Amino acid sequence: MSASGMMTGFPSPPSGQVTLANWRLPPFNRWAFRNVRQILPTAAIPRGEAAGEAFRRSERAIEAIAFQGPDGQEWTVGRMLAASFTDGLLALHRGRLVVERYDSGLLPETPHIVFSVSKSITALLAGILVGQGRLDPEAPVLRYIPEVTGSAYGDCSVRHVLDMTVSTDFVEDYLDTTGDFARYRMATGWNPVADPSNVGDLRSFLPSIHRGAGPHGEVFHYVSPNSDLLGWILERAAGRPFAELMSELVWRPLGAEFDAYITVDRLGAPRSAGGICVTLRDLARFGEMMRLRGMAGGRQIAPAWWIDDIRENGDRQAWRRGDLASQLPLDRYRSKWYSLGDGCFCAIGIHGQWLYIDPTSEVVLAKLSSQPEAVDEATDRLTMTGLAALARAMAERA
C-alpha cells in the first residue's frame, strides 16, 4: 500500500490505520514520518515572527548525474533517490537552491521527523550554551543531573556524552522487543506500553542504564539515551524547557520558515535523541548555518570555534574501536556529528535522514526518507556515495 492509502476514510480501514504500534514500519512509515504530531505528544519549536529570506534559486536537473556505487555498479542520483525511499531532497550551493524535490506526500510546509539528526541539532544548542558560559563540556554529568548517580553516567563527563564515549552495557538494538532498548522505547512514548501498571518515563529510565566494564572515553559506543540525557542536561544548565531553548537560541535567529516540533514523553521530557521534526527547507537552512561556521542572516548564532571543533577534533581511535566503524566509512565523531575524513561532515538518522555538508564544494544536502528498515547498511553506503557525487557535480557545474 502506498502512503496515499494511509489514514483515509472515517475511520480508516485497519489496512491503512497508522498507530503507535506500526508507525515506524513499512508501509505505514511513509505517512507517519510526516505526520508524527498525529501519533505522539509533541512540544512546539516556534519560528520567529517573520520568516527568513527565501532561497535564491539556480535550479538544475541532477537525476542523470552518474557515479559508481559501493556495489561496483553504475548508478545515477535519480536512481539512488528512488532506491533509498527519498521523501525530499534539497541541495544548496553557496546558499543558492539548486534542487528542491518532494515525494510521497511531503510538502514544503510539512515537518518530517529527522530521527538521529536530532542529536546533531541538540549538540549545536549545547555549543551555544557553552559559548554563553552556561554549560561546561568537561564538567561531570552529576553537576547537572545528580539523579543519575550510580548509573553509567555517574562518573562520566558531558564531553563523554557528547562524543558517545560513555562506557555502558546498553545495546542499541532496533529489533529488540523485550530488553533494555524495548523498555527505552516505551519510556519515550514511542512504543505501546507492555505493562499498564509500570508505564515509566524517560527521565526515570535514564538512571537505570548500567555502567560498562571499560573506562569512559576510549570506545565510541552508539547509545541514543546519551543524547536524551544531553537534552536534560541543557534544560538544567539553562533552567528552561528544551523546546523553548531551541526556539529562542536556534530556530528564531536561524530565520526558519516554519515551526518545528519535538516529541515528548508522558511527562513532557523531550526526545532530543531522535524526536525533532522539521521541514526540508529549514533542515537545509540549519545545514547552511553549519557550513558558514554558525552564521545565518548576518548573525553569529553558534560559536564558530564550536563548529571548528566538530570538524577538526574527535578521537579517531575511539571511532575505530567502536560499534559503527565497520558499517560506514567515516573518520571520527565529535559532538554528535560524523566526519568523513575528506573535510565533509554530516548528521545521520535512521530510516535514511541525512544532512551532508561539504565545505570545500560549498554544498549542503538535506535528505528526508522513509526507508523500510531502521538500519540498512547497503543503502546507507549507497546514499553516502551518491550524495558525495552530487556535491562534486554541483561544484564542478557552478
Task: Summarize the SSE layout with pairings.
Layout (H helix, E strand, L loop, with lengths): L28 H4 L9 E4 L20 E3 L5 E3 H7 L2 E8 L2 E7 L9 E2 L3 H15 L26 H5 L17 H9 L13 H4 L18 H15 L3 H13 L5 E4 L12 E3 L1 H12 L3 E2 L2 E2 L3 H9 L3 H6 L10 E3 L2 E3 L5 E5 L3 E6 L4 E7 L7 H20 L2
Antiparallel strand pairs: 1-7, 2-3, 4-5, 4-15, 6-8, 7-8, 9-10, 11-12, 12-13, 13-14, 14-15
Helix pairs in contact: 2-12, 3-7
Calculate the terminal CA-CA distance, rounded to whole Å.
40 Å
Question: Spans with pLDDT under 50 lasting ≥5 residues?
Answer: none
The CATH superfamily of the domain at 50-134 and 241-396 is known as: DD-peptidase/beta-lactamase superfamily
Rg over C-alpha atoms, rounded to the nearest angstrom? 20 Å
What's the mean pLDDT score? Answer: 95
Instruction: Tell me the CATH topology of the domain at 50-134 and 241-396.
Output: Beta-lactamase
Number of DSSP strand runs? 15
Question: Overall 3D geometry?
Answer: globular
From the 3D coordinates, which CATH architecture of the domain at 50-134 and 241-396 would you assign? 3-Layer(aba) Sandwich
Reading off the top of the CATH hierarchy, the class of the domain at 50-134 and 241-396 is best stated as Alpha Beta
Structural class category: alpha+beta
Order of helices and strands: HEEEHEEEHHHHHHEEHEEHHEEEEEH
The share of residues in extended strands comes to 15-25%
Q: How is the largest sheet built, in terms of strand order?
A: 5-4-15-14-13-12-11
The helix tally amounts to 12
Helix fraction bin = 25-40%
The main β sheet shows up as:
7 strands, antiparallel
